[in-house]
Amino acid sequence: MFASVCQPAQYQRVSPALEPTPEQFAALAARPADEPVVMVNLLKFRSDGGRESYTRYGQEVAPHLQRVGGIVRYAGGAPTQVIGDDEKPWWDAILVVEYPSPSAFIDMVTNEDFRKSHEFRANALDRGDLIATSWTLAD
Please, which pLDDT band fits residue 84 given cuts at 50, 70 and 90? Predict the structure, then answer.
């Protein structure tokens, strides 16, 4: 479903761990349609130009975010871990993006033009956890 839509043949070398499973995608689609969804992206860049490729992805994706009403709420690195077992977290950067609804996110990632931009993300990451959250602490 989502993986086949967002993983065209030209970059199917992407690790399956960088794409949602059909069950994960269905869980997102089943969230309340009238509530915002806040996507927390934990990003581990490839050592061979990953950060640069992700920067290009960000530039390419900006108009798609704007079209669906997405807003970048935070983008930053991981210089120091204050609580936890390791000196540094596993990820290099964190990106928090708010969408007005799950369907806005789904509309964006299934758009043909977005899929062309997605190649830069795929080429940028060794690992990219994407966590759908909400602004409240409800279930």
Answer: confident
What does each C-alpha distance from 95 to 44, 73, 89, 98, 139 come to in angstroms? 11, 8, 14, 10, 23
Single pTM value for the model: 0.80
Mean pLDDT computed over every residue of the chain: 83
Length of the chain: 139
Question: How buried is 102 (Cβ within 10 angstroms: 0-12 exposed, 13-18 middle, 19+ buried)?
Answer: buried
pLDDT of residue 90: 87
CA dist., res. 71 & res. 109, Å (int)? 15
CA distance 57 to 109: 13
Q: Under 8 Å CB-to-CB from 33, ≥6 apart: which residues? A: 101, 102, 103
Domains and CATH numbers, the chain: 2-133 (3.30.70.100)
